[in-house]
Structure prediction request, 365 residues.
Amino acid sequence: MADYQENREFRILSAIGIILVAAGHLGFNLFDVGGLFPYYSFHVFIFLFVSGYFYKPESENKIGSYIKGKCVTLLLPYFIWNLLYGIMTLLLHKAGFTIGQDISLYTLFLAPFDGGHQFMYNFPAWFVPALFLVEVINVCARKALSFLHLNYEWLIFAGSLFLGILTVWLAIGGHVWGFYKIPGRILFMLPGFEMGRIYKEKLEAHDRLSNGWYFLIVMGIQLIITFLCGGLAFSAVWVTSFGNGPVVPYLTVITGIAFWLRISRILKEVPAVSKGLVTIGRNTYAVMMHHIMAFFLVKTVFYVIHLLTPLCGDFDTALYFSDVNFLYLPKEAEVVKWLYLAAGIGIPLVVACWQEKLKNEVGLK
Prediction:
């Protein structure tokens, strides 16, 4: 999602991240390595890590331009799509659907920062306003520290990690609720961004272990965490479900990203696979914004088949009209999730292509 020069390894890592997000919303655990790396124990942080990796320190010399650029690349398309999804939700309400809230100033402009689940069909894009706030806080904090001659990467990372751990501790105690979730979410996510900075500035040059030793160490650590802890999944958007104290979530973020980062490095050298993944990696914004709608379109096809033919007789119409997370699987066949996943990735890519052509036609590029 970040605006960075081509880096195939990190494009592929971004693609893996968004595939895990889409698969997670399907309950499709095919890619969790036998349960060793649950998606919800790290996948949101992949995008923070990538964004932090490509942060440019010179941005601190032109903060106004930096924030303006982020408004254009992150917030402007978000609010345009949010309006369109709001209009679509309104029309679907008239057709009998009960999914999503009504259009209002709150759902159009404030709700995106307060959870981002206002219209539901685009709820995974809650991450976009949150990332914007993380990036603004990061650049402003770095600028302030530079005046104090304290602009050191390890210090910044340690400070953000301390605040993140403190936030999780408060959340476990039930103190991060209501509007407190807005700063809580940002403080919880900020260490992920700073991990990207630390990796680029301090660790990447030393990331030279052979694949065998690398995976032995990363997977060994993850096995220990899995054996010693209960469920590792947590909710980044709601800052909840921390079942193993305030430190373990960040450990699983590190191990999860480390595992898939090395996988990305390996896949980079496989042209038949890397080309498609790089394309997905260039369009994570679109996939994040539209994959739930793509799932809905697949369900709509099944709904029409149900209405017109004897097939799909077990289709649950009530859930179709009321629950955005309803997933229809003919004869409960898990293999159909591949169809949903293909649509969830493919349809947003088509939308992104159309959007790019529209930009070129109106002279925005």
User: Anything to note?
Assistant: The chain has two domains: 8-279, 286-361. The chain has a mean pLDDT of 95. Residues 8-279 form one domain. The longest helix spans residues 63-94.
